[in-house]
Amino acid sequence: MSAAPLPVLEKAERRTSRRQPVHVPLDVVALQSGFPETLPGRCTDVSEAGVGAIIAGELVPDQQIALELQLPNLGVPVRSRALVRYQERLHCGFQFVGLPVEQREMIRYWLRHFAAQPTQVSEKGKGPKADGVAASAVAEGRVERIRVRLRRFYALAALMVLLTGLVWWQWERSWNELEAQASSAAEAGSLRVSSEIMEKRIVYKESPVYPEKARLAGKQGIVVLDAMIGADGTVRRVRPISGPDLLAQSAADAVQSWKFEPYLADGKPVEVETTIAVEFRLH
What we know:
With 283 residues, this protein is α+β, with helices and mostly antiparallel strands. It has five helices and 14 strands. The chain is rod-shaped and about 115 Å long.
């Protein structure tokens, strides 16, 4: 009675492609619950047909993934779709799917010129020692990635602190300049205040007399005056800036009698300059 042949795992099938041991980082992108997830790992061997790797994550046979690795002495990374042929503990086997011709030739070139003598990795090599080396390699790769992410985080945090400090410094400087200008103007005896603000502070206003000469000449329009308002709210000085000459003097005479609520700077009444517009209409 002959014994029935034992089932052979797919990972134990005879490989016809030359495999070369190599230890480089490997990124695997797989769909996990419908979302792409990048699993860091370490490539242990490479051939024209696929790669062996140690992956920090769970995969299932025949699962489609995308992988990327950088072979030593080659400037272009290997990028390809692949199928998961097996996974035992952290060890995985990937078979290239649709590997472009130029990528395959690049792997062949690397195997011929840069790789050492081919070494066949069998199941016997996967003992406790190999598992320890694999776990150590994965841990080393994950620690290095964490270090890189921490360095990036600290650099970003330092940049944010620097930018925040710069914005605060510019704001503080601008505020100090404004305060200095206000103080200087107050010390000089006058501030420039908009006409809209001073118009709300008028407590007495006298309408101008329409000059007869201007009425007969059909002159009308707006006279713009530059006025100096004293700390007590009285008009100290009026100077026409624009408008019909026949109307300017009448507008200045009227504004000279206006009265304003004193303008305050730092809680104290100060002299201010402003612009006042007086309109003349015939009808």
